[in-house]
Amino acid sequence: GESTIMPPSHLARSTEHMQYWISTSTCGFELSSSGVMPDDMFQHSHLLGVLKLSRCTFSFSSPPFLCCHSLRFQSLLHCQDLRTRTSNAHHYHTNSDKELDSSTTMLWECFQSLWVLDLRYTDWDQILSARMMDLMTQLRELIVMGANNWDMSHLRGRLRNIRKLRVTKSTCCFNNDVFSEMEMLELLDLSGNTITRGMTSLSGAARNRSLQTVIIGGNYGLKMISFRGCKELKNLLLKGYFSSLEELDISGTSVKTLDLGGVDATSLPERIILLGCEKLRAILWPQHKESQEWSGMLRIDTTSTSAPADGRGVPKAHPHADQSLEQQKEEKFKGWQISLPDARLLRSLYPARYKSLRGCHIDICHAATLVGSMVQGASGDEQVQVQPYTRTVVDSMYRDFLKYRPAEAVTAWEWDCPKIPLPPAPLMRRFLQVTCIIKVIMHGQGNTLLEDANTSALLLPDFICNGVSSLHVYDNPSITSVLAPPQRSEWTRLIWCRVERCPKLHAVFTIPMVRQGMFSDNVSTGFQSLETFWASQLLTARYIWDWDWTMATTHIKHSGNFESLVFLHLDYCPRLIHVLVLATPSVTLGALETLEIVQCGDLREVFPLGPELQEQDKIIEFPKLKYIHLCELPKLQSICGRRMSSPNLEAI
């Protein structure tokens, strides 16, 4: 049929009505009544740089634009092979076709200078054959949409200059790690595809310093997604159903928000690894029902940009660290492992049903305590011999406190700290088998991302306080207290707590009274499950539990507070005034078996009584107390009130 040329001024309002059109950078749109392109159409277009063809028909084995040696941009939308159209058959390649393709490959110079290739709903898979892609050495952007049964495995090892690669809404097959050698890639979009075979592993180039955005749609066969070491990766979006996905690893990237909101809740990865993700601030989880709680493995480390090659991101211990204690943590908490300097990220764990974990341990320490290798000792510390079986490491800042004391004054007999327990696992709830360890790494003084600006107290989300089973606060020069938020937080599951070498800590716990119900005057202090408390070398601590005991006397009605406490140890807390106020009869220590306090010079009374108990003048019962060890307490007046009973006492 005849062709007519339309001037550029009419392009915008006319394109919607064009059934067949051709766009070039020189002649505007050329209409064709039949849609079949003449073979000689571009014979004088050697300098043509941009070519867009829509719903055109031409010979794929010898297209009319072969003479366009200056093409930079090529777009094909809903185009057909002439032989396919004339035979009214599906596109296929006979042996003669392939011979023709091979013989004319040397003539495909138009692709050697190409920067952008856009193929949409054009069934021409031979254009991405190995032979053709070897010619596209300058290709920077490839767009494939609506492909049908294309073999994309030829991409591997080719298109090394590619910047943007989009394969969407297609049915195709890939090889494993087909993009792993594209070191210049900036954007990868694989959304809405059906992968028929081949690809179980998807990874980026290990040396890629350009990749910024990755979009991956649901894939039935994909088992592993890894973009470890792609430092510039900022955006990762997963959506759809991943029936076989076992691992997602984006360690060492710059991702700020891991968006899993579009993933089917039943197909989350079994393992999510985010080591060295220093900029990570949030994880968005999919909506799911209670019966779909995720029980996978989570690894997060935002304290460093380096991602270890072996996938391990556990910080090394400080010289002061009790190595047996560190070993306990490694052995017992192998599920979720999280290290972070910004406690706000912890709020992202709530939708993943963090509070339903079997056992959770939290470490709170200073960045300076994490060293590059395991260290057995340090010249700046004094080793204080206490017992043939154990010893206490006294920080150098306590030398002024100790140097005028005789040697026997700093020798103390003590019992070992009980081991970190794990709550028993319910037999009927499989997802409660998962354990968790969280390391909160604080930096500098007054870190506003972690601490209250006025008190330098560590702020933790309320569900963390409610869910944690063990807590270790150590080697932190700036923290003043572990401050629980006022809303609904009670430390109800805390079983084991150890606090040591925090010179500015004035109170271990500063916690407001928590009302039980909106209209109730009854409040709770929490700590119903606490069994072990150990405090050591707290230079300025005045209190262990600092509450408004006037309010407690008025409102605490029920029993249960501290009823499980078995082991209580304090050493080298020279400013400590008291340990725990027994404000009302409901605050009891009926399970306490071991009480040990050493080198607390200002301690006057261990368990002072509230006004109500003082007026009653009753005998305070400690029915299970067996061992008492008190040493270097010059101001101590009493343990608890004027009268106490310990019928099972064995040693004092």
TrEMBL record:
Segment forming the signal sequence: none
A Pfam family it matches: LRR_RPS2
Residues covered by the Disease resistance protein At4g27190-like leucine-rich repeats domain: 559-641
Region of interest called Disordered, as start-end residue ranges on this chain: 305-326
Residue runs in coiled coils: none
Record InterPro entries: At4g27190-like_LRR, LRR_dom_sf, Plant_NBS-LRR
PANTHER family associated with the record: NB-ARC DOMAIN-CONTAINING PROTEIN, NB-ARC DOMAIN-CONTAINING PROTEIN-RELATED
Record protein name field: Disease resistance protein At4g27190-like leucine-rich repeats domain-containing protein
